[in-house]
Design a protein that fits this description.
disordered N terminus; about 130 residues; 2 strands; 4 helices
Length: about 130
């Protein structure tokens, strides 16, 4: 790959393809920041941690309910609702943990891709074709 294209009889370099708004002269590098991805992963981790004690807090909140409602049919329904919420909380925690890992993986993959692309243009730059 030479980094130069011939279009309409004119030679055009990769640098020229960026146009006036973005990769033109002086701004010819594509840059990636992993900041947004790692911040989002940190948010997912924080949510995972915040949901951690919720299950035991829910159990504690229901301890007194059983004694005061013995014999009521609503007790069965209340137990089913509590179990449903406990499953949902655990599912949300698992999703947050998974999401955090996936977001960090995206940041790593983009960084690796950027480095691979940079290295692929090194031979062109060494020959003076990137200037």
């Amino acid at each position: 790959m030479s980094g130069v294209a011939v279009m309409g009889g004119q030679r055009q370099s990769l640098r020229d393809l960026g146009g006036a708004g973005g990769g033109g002269r002086g701004g010819d590098e594509l840059k990636h920041s992993d900041g947004p991805w790692t911040r989002a992963a940190g948010g997912a981790d924080a949510l995972h941690r915040q949901l951690g004690p919720v299950k035991s807090e829910l159990e504690t909140a229901h301890e007194g309910v059983v004694a005061g409602t013995a014999g009521l049919e609503a007790l069965t329904e209340l137990g089913a609702v509590r179990e449903s919420w406990q499953r949902r909380i655990e599912a949300a925690r698992g999703e947050c943990r998974s999401l955090a890992g996936n977001l960090r993986a995206v940041a790593r993959a983009q960084g690796e891709t950027n480095e691979a692309v940079r290295q692929s243009f090194a031979p062109v730059a060494a020959r003076g074709g990137g200037q």
